[in-house]
Amino acid sequence: MENPEKDRGRRRRRAVVPVGATGRGPGLALRLPIRTSLLLLGLLMTGLAQVPVPASAPRGFWALPENLTVVEGAAAELWCGVSAPGSTVQWAKDGLLLGPDPRIPSFPRYRLQGDPTKGEFHLHIEACDLSDDAGYECQVSRSETGPELVSPRVILSILVPPKVLQLTPEAGSTVTWVAGQEYLVSCVSGDAKPATDITFLLSGQTISDISANVNEGSQEKLFTTEATARVTPQSSDNGQLLVCEGSSPALDTPIKASITMNVLFPPGPPVIEWPGLDEGHARAGQNLELLCMARGGNPLATLQWLKNGQPVSTAWGTEHTQAVARSMLVMIVRPEDHGARLSCEAYNSVSTGIQERGVTLQVTFPPSAITILGSASQSENKNVTLSCITKSSRPRVLLRWWLGWRQLLSTEETVIDGLHGGYISMSNLTFLARREDNGLTLTCEAFSEAFTKETFKKSLALNVKYPAQKLWIEGPPEGQRLRAGTRVRLVCLAIGGNPDPSLTWYKDSRTVTEPRPPQEPRRVQLGNLEKSGSTFSRELVLITGPSDNQAKFTCKAGQLSASTQLVVQFPPTNVTILANASALRPGDALNLTCVSVSSNPPVNLSWDKEGERLEGVAATPRSAPFKGSAAARSVLLRMSSRDHGHRVTCRAHSTELRETVSAFYRLNVLYPPEFLGEQVLMVTAVEQGEALLPVSVSANPAPEAFNWTFRGYRLSPAGGPRHRILSGGALQLWNVTRADDGLYQLHCQNSEGTAEALVRLDVHYIVCTVDANPILPEMFNWERLVRIQPLGEEEEDQSLDDMEKISKGSTGRLRIHHAKLTQAGAYQCIVDNGVAPPARGLVRLVVRFAPHVEHPSPLTKVAAAGDSTSSATLHCRARGVPNIVFTWTKNGVPLDLQDPRYTEHTYHQSGVHSSLLTIANVSAAQDYALFTCTATNPLGSDHTDIQLVSISRPDPPLGLKVMSMTPYSVGLEWKPGFDGGLPQSFQVRYEALGTPGFLYMNVLPPQATTFTLTGLQPSTRYRVWLLASNALGDSGIADKGSQVSVTTPGLDQPSGEPDYQLPTEQPAGPSRLPLLPVLFAVGGLLLLSNASCVGGFLWQRRLKRLAEGISEKTEAGSEEDRVRNEYEESQWTGDRDTRSSMVSTTDVEPYYHSMRDFSPQLPPTLEEVSYPRGVTGLKEENMAFPGHVYDELERLYAPSGAWGPLYDEVPMGSCDLYWPEDRYEDARGIYDQVAGDLDPMEPDALPFELRGQLV
């Protein structure tokens, strides 16, 4: 059945209950008892239910249930006492019968409690909950003992306490509010029965302005309460709690929820603590510290200092425990701070305006400076006027004057307004300057009562001027004669004077200074002004010279002056020779005039030529400087070729001074070539040996060409396989044959004319045979032919002790065990059977050895312009047998010789091999690199490095040394350094120690490496430097290697001439042979004479073809000629070939030999050319021409015909002055075969180097 109470509850409407009222439940909606009455009623009903019913209870019950109120979770018990035992009793809940079973199975928390026999049927409910809130009846069924009974209906009311309060803002949080502003706070209780009563507490005080609403809960019979309060926090509420408190009959104590209030409020006004009693008063320079404080405020105050409205400090600190903010202003008070307003401002984020406290500065400051205007320097007995002015001060200061310890009275005082509210004080003073006051201190003093502990002063030293009293000069007596070069000391002295007198020296009205030319001794030394007491002095020391003669030396000090005059004797200042002509020829008349510019006393002039006295004529002299005397004298000379190079000397002699000054004029006479008396007209030579046809010729200028003709044909100036024309014109021949006998005509010419000479060559020869009778056991003898060694090399060992000599019948052998390189060379077999003359035969031993590259030192350098238009040639030379193969690398990378920019040629000459690498279009970026040349043959390899660089100035010469010495000359020799890629020349710079200045002399010819320095004086020490120069500049003075010091011998000492002559060529070929070799026996010679005709024809035809192909290339391998410099002699010296400018000069070293033993190197052989290795059809086994044995050597030597023409075909006439250069003829038909009596296939027709046995 329906529960009418539940229906009424659903029909309830939401009602607003005033604070303090509460709802009593659905059945009591219209009743509003107070909360206290409800609580007392519940307790009363609970008590009544627990006691037996009184006697007035309905019949059949001795105890009846009563209305009961319990808190949720507690136990409840409703009483029911039945008078009729044995009756069936059960309870009904809202009309629902619970059953008579005491355990009441359907409701586990329900049970009947009591003794049924006593009629106790109490209903006990454990852990009551809201479902137990209902009406209950105790019902008794009919029984034998009693009727059916029903107790009155009672109500069990369950109280549900609120579990939680929901606070907005969130409980437990801190809220930030601004003081004075209103805020809403809401508090909602959880489900409760009856509705929760809500109260708000602010800082422990109840808030009255609240509103509350009671709403239905989440379940029936449950209610929620929502209360809202209006809160206006104050600064005192900062940090306090706002509490929401919920109370209910079901609670023993109210439940609470709270928030913490962070109330923001502005700080209090700032306070400035001023040090001292007088607020705002400060002194300039004071370190002022001002403290500003502001109390309270949340947050604490932000402080800043302002000066005249401009912030000066924004630093502050806070102390939260004391709720105070502090800011310290530290400043140095300055005068300009006077009148400034300092203020401290305090504010925070909730301040409605800025709070300020200010103070105005009153600054006291002294004058920062005192200035005295006017000069404290005045002549004696004159007035001194000065003014003293102070800078601005506050308060004003007073001024007073002191001179020493004496106070002076001012003439006028003035005060005007100054800066920063201060005042400027001025005082004028005029007084008479006296000599006794000189040096006293003049002081202006400022003082004031405000600055009692300080004194402000400005002082000057009084300077009273007065003149010197006396001035004089101490020195040599006037009129005393002084020799030039004498040291003279002049002293100027003065007494007294203020200021110190400035002593100034004058020479003929010009101020004397102290010049200091570089590298020259000082002639004038001017001392400093010195003081001794009241005496002042200044010294002038001078080395007298011609300009000091009759000069007036004056010393001045202000208006005072003193003078002295010197008389200086001096030799001629300059002796000059004037000539009426420069170009002289034999027969010309030369007029020379000698002029002595100035001397004191006068001098006598005289002439001589190479020691021979000449008579001169006096000439009219010019005016002489330095107040001296001039002189002139002339001489007339008739020129001849013998006068060339002679010196004509003029001597100026002073009898009184006993001194002579000389000057000379060197005669330069142009004349055609003239053969000297020592010219050799006949030269003797031995067949197969060498011959030198010397030339002794004198000419000026040097001969332009030397041309030799033989039997009407001109010898090639470029040389041939068996001849060479040396730079001095001498003709050298080697491998001489009897066909070379005859007259050789020499023709030399220069711009002045020509000269000719005939030189006869007489060739001695013998016939060698191979048969002998009788044949003796000891008729064979061997000896080794040693070539002439270059100077400095060790001589070869001629001993044959380590070789075995064997003879058997008509055969002799020389057995060499373990052949060494030092044993290579020519050997001669001498056969003597007692029948004169002995027969001789030659053989050459060739020893194989690994390559050895010539390593120049320092590193070889080759220069070329890197403009992509120039070319460079790198020369690599090595020795080795068999032939050598050359390879090139650039910076370690193999060079691609297929590149058209690179061209490589290989040449062979005996055991010497050369590789020429030509680089076309040299580029600085690509080709300035390190090139490496490697020489390789089957026995090993060797290499050298060549650096390709840009053209530059030359390197300094090396190894300068003295080769000869006389009292008047020194012979020098050196090694050229790297020429920088351009033709270089040399210059000698020398000085005589103790004599100022340097002398220079150019070396001619420019490329010479020897030089004779003439014009020196005996017994004199000289220092000599050698410089190299090219178009880009000179090498400079090197530390070592390019300078020497020498002392020339006296006239009574022997000269240091060398005992040998310096040659101009370097011998490289084999030494000449003393005798013609023995070729074969008589029978073999006859057999060879037939075969030679055929072989000679084939030989000449092939060599003719070869000569046409290689004639242009032979010039590349020609050796450079070295010449000897004869600068001071009339002998001609030729120019050195300059084609080596692209190759390091260290590649060629000078050697020195007797001209008698001179032997040149053979021209190189082109590697590309092959030569015949034999003549076919000949049966003779001992053929002299090499066979397969010489496979590795025949390319080392070329037959003479392979080298092009030796002479041209143009016969020379007696009137031919110029030689055609374009026509030459094959030398085989002119030079080697001119006699027609030598078969080309005979052994002697081959070069000696081509004959030999290979080892």
UniProtKB/TrEMBL annotation:
Disordered: region residues: 1038-1068, 1112-1142
Subcellular location: Cell membrane
Described purpose of this protein according to its UniProt entry: Seems to play a role in the development or function of the kidney glomerular filtration barrier. Regulates glomerular vascular permeability. May anchor the podocyte slit diaphragm to the actin cytoskeleton. Plays a role in skeletal muscle formation through regulation of myoblast fusion.
Biased composition regions of type Basic and acidic residues, renumbered to the chain: 1112-1127
An example Gene Ontology CC term for this record: cell-cell junction
GO terms of molecular function: cell adhesion molecule binding
Name of the protein: Nephrin
Topology within the bilayer: Single-pass type I membrane protein
GO BP term, pick one: cell-cell adhesion
Segments forming domain Ig-like: 52-151, 269-360, 367-461, 467-567, 571-662, 766-834, 851-952
Transmembrane segments: 1075-1099
PROSITE patterns: FN3, IG_LIKE
Keywords: Cell adhesion, Cell membrane, Developmental protein, Disulfide bond, Glycoprotein, Immunoglobulin domain, Membrane, Myogenesis, Phosphoprotein, Repeat, Signal, Transmembrane, Transmembrane helix
Family (UniProt): Belongs to the immunoglobulin superfamily.
Residue ranges constituting the Fibronectin type-III domain according to the UniProt record: 956-1051
Organism: Neophocaena asiaeorientalis asiaeorientalis (Yangtze finless porpoise)
Superkingdom in the source lineage: Eukaryota
